[in-house]
Amino acid sequence: MKSKTATQKDILRALEQRLPSFSKGQRVLARFVLDNYDKAAFMTASRLGAAVGVSESTVVRFAAELGFRGYPGMKKALQEVVRSRLTAVERLEVAEQTMNTQDVARAVLRADIANLQATLDETDEAAFNTAVDRILSARRIFIVGMRTSTTLANFLGFYLNLLRDNIHVVQDTAAMEVYEQMLRVREGDLVIGISFPRYSNRTINAMKYARDRKAGTLGITDTKTSPLNDYADVCLFAKSEMVSFLDSLVAPMGLINALIVAIGTRDREHTFQTFRDLEDIWSEYGVYQTIEH
Hints:
- The chain has 293 residues and is α/β, with parallel strands linked by helices.
- Helices cover 59% and strands 10% of the residues.
- It contains 15 helices and seven strands.
- The chain has helices at residues 4-9, 11-18, 24-35, 37-40, 45-52, 56-65, 71-85, 88-98, 104-122, 125-137, 150-163, 175-181, 201-212, 250-266, 268-284, and strands at 141-145, 167-170, 190-194, 216-221, 234-237, 242-243, 246-247.
- Helix 5 packs across helix 6, helix 9 (104-122) packs across helix 14 (250-266) and helix 11 runs parallel beside helix 14.
């Protein structure tokens, strides 16, 4: 039996390779999944069984045969394939079939709550504490987040810049300019790569570049099957399930919030003094609007 992680990475390839060895009912099921994985990824076991004319129990046994503990594991693996392969237009088509478009606000907010809860349940405290240690001990920190992850990178960079020196947010520009911004990365530095499906090649290559130059690497991504995990010394995971044509960044932002707070708490006196100084500056230069009561 294949390991769960391996199966998540190549479930479609496994189905193709093992097709001849399946029973008649399993072959029908496998063929349907191969041809309609974008739809199957969001079906219940009973609905998938009904679509191909087999029982729900056959679907559950089929998932176990592939190496999953249950049908939810197989469904999750298919959803990961969907998220990494589908174009924005195809995502829209899937969303129309799976989302209650009459109550979008509640559907999206419920999905975000589920992402936050799953991230909380699966957060590795040891890895999180190691990430905090790496950030505090690094000589310089380079933060790389491209495409939609640019927002996360800028947010992390803004607050880290208040808490410590030598923070560099690599700008999402032409590919060669990314390497120019990271030209002097070396041992003792830390490169934080942030990427969620569809994964950015620039971020992945930037992490590889950092690794080749013996810099430390910290990844913030969605799952252990993320390509970012291959180049990260430490990796933190936040759920980012597909919502229509976009992926929710609510849980990743929550994880980054936790990182920032942990770093500030670890060096409490310095943090308090920093914000005392900032309050004086903000007051003197009228940075914020004063509300009269």
